[in-house]
Amino acid sequence: MDSVVPVPVVPTIPIHGSEAVFPVRRIYCVGRNYADHAREMGMDPSREPPFFFGKPHDVVVPGGGAIAYPPATANLHYEAELVVALSKGGRDIPVAEASGHIFGYAVGIDLTRRDLQARAKDKGQPWDTAKGFDQSAPISPITPVSLCGLREAGAIWLSVNGVEKQRGDLAQMTWNVPEVIAHISGFVALAPGDLIFTGTPAGVGPIVQGDRVRCGIDGLGELEILVV
Ligand code: MN
Ligand 1 centre and the CA of 39: distance in Å? Predict the structure, then answer.
């Protein structure tokens, strides 16, 4: 059947050690999932239920590289995050079964227009323009669980121009990965191809044109972007 506009392309992420790719369906992101980051954002890090926001799937930047400084902001922030890639979906996935839905993991940066986010919070408005803009989700190649095992602990770090800005451990998440998967699946049906950004440790901050941002997670490799 003819399409009246060009058929949108499904974005894909490379897989470490394979010629195959991971097609991206949806992107879910967890807010304030490390207590030290919740505190630096002026929030109480008590274990309230996790909350989520989304990014459109076509904002991924596979492998990182050059990122154009986005319009309409004067305060672009980095957030280093573990990204979980799902091989199986479902509704009401029990915590005890959630790990079986993971295809693999990647290193991601949840780029954020912090000024627009602050304005949205003040006015009780949605975060879409703060979080879901073009090129707002650089992501490394995915490492399959079959190669790296389940990642429940390990260092996560980020540097800007060689200066370390963030360092945490995956074990510090307020809600761990199985709990996050179980929780989201209580609201929507998850599916193969979904990505989940699992939150960032403390140390978020601004980046400007010319900055080189590198981040990594133990066992999952590194991701680098250059803001142009
Ligand atoms: Mn984030």
Answer: 14
Q: How far is the CA of 86 from the centre of ligand 1 (A)?
A: 18
Give the residue with greater pLDDT, 185 vs 42: 185
The domain 12-227 is classified under which CATH number: 3.90.550.10, 3.90.850.10, 3.40.1000.10, 3.40.640.10?
3.90.850.10
Residues, CB within 5 angstroms of ligand 1 (ion): 79, 110, 200
d(CA 180, CA 177) in angstroms, rounded, equals 5
How many A from CA of 31 to the centre of ligand 1?
Answer: 6
The residues pairing with 206 across neighbouring beta strands, listed in sequence order, are 77
Element (H, E) at 133: none
Give distance in angstroms: CA of 2 to centre of ligand 1. Answer: 39
What are the pLDDT digits (tens) for 83-136? 999 999 999 999 999 999 999 999 999 999 999 999 999 999 999 999 999 999
Cα 206 to Cα 39: distance, rounded to the nearest angstrom: 18
The β-bridge partners of 225 are: 65, 213
Domain ranges of the chain: 12-227
Residue type, 112: T
